[in-house]
Amino acid sequence: WNPAFHYDEMRTGTLHGYHRQFCFWSKLGRGTPDNPGMMLALDRGGSCKGIVLGVKRQRAQEELTSVFMRELTGETYHARWGKVRTEQGPVEAITFVANHDAEQYVGRRPLEEIARYIAQGCGHLGPCTDYLFNTTQHLEELDLKDPMMRRLCDLVERELSRK
């Protein structure tokens, strides 16, 4: 997990209207065209617990430019404002949500199928398994346990043990 920008504040919060989902093919970074991996996004429906990172106003343009350049390089995501509920009160935050019109968008798939693609995917950024395991570990270190992510780790480990 790497925010890739300097932030001044970090809060945990819940975003309603979107959930964490493996819903994109990864045919370069964590897979290949012949052996795609899968990537996470915020997709419509449900809710998602996560981290809200705050940037001071005087540095916002500089810091957010790097975030936008990283997240909006292709057609994968749309930037959207979302209200996030935190213990300190609600905040408006920029979120990057799945673009359903993107070529690599695959929507909701059974976890067993996602696990097979994650177990096989490897691209120039490394194995897709690293992406899943590292993301899950960081969520858990932040006390943001996600049952879907943990279940997916178990399914991927089972896939890997069959090889």
Task: Please give a structural write-up.
- This protein has about 160 residues and is α+β, with helices and mostly antiparallel strands.
- It has a single domain, classed as Gamma-glutamyl cyclotransferase-like (Hypothetical upf0131 protein ytfp), CATH 3.10.490.
- About 35% of the residues lie in helices and about 35% in strands.
- It is built from four helices and six strands.
- The protein has helices spanning about 55-70, 110-120, 130-140, 145-160, and strands at about 10-25, 35-55, 75-85, 90-100, 120-125, 125.
- Strands 2-1-3-4 form a four-stranded antiparallel β-sheet. The chain has a two-stranded antiparallel ribbon with strand order 5-6.
- β3 and β4 form a beta hairpin.
- The radius of gyration is 16 Å and the shape is globular.
Radius of gyration: 16 Å
Low-confidence stretches: none
CATH architecture field: Roll
By CATH reckoning, the class would read Alpha Beta
Strands, helices and their partners?
Elements: E1 9-26, E2 37-54, H1 57-71, E3 77-86, E4 89-98, H2 111-120, E5 122-123, E6 126-127, H3 128-141, H4 147-162
Antiparallel strand pairs: 1-2, 1-3, 3-4, 5-6
Helix pairs in contact: 2-4, 3-4
Short account of what is shown:
It is built from four helices and six strands. The chain is an alpha+beta fold and 163 residues long.
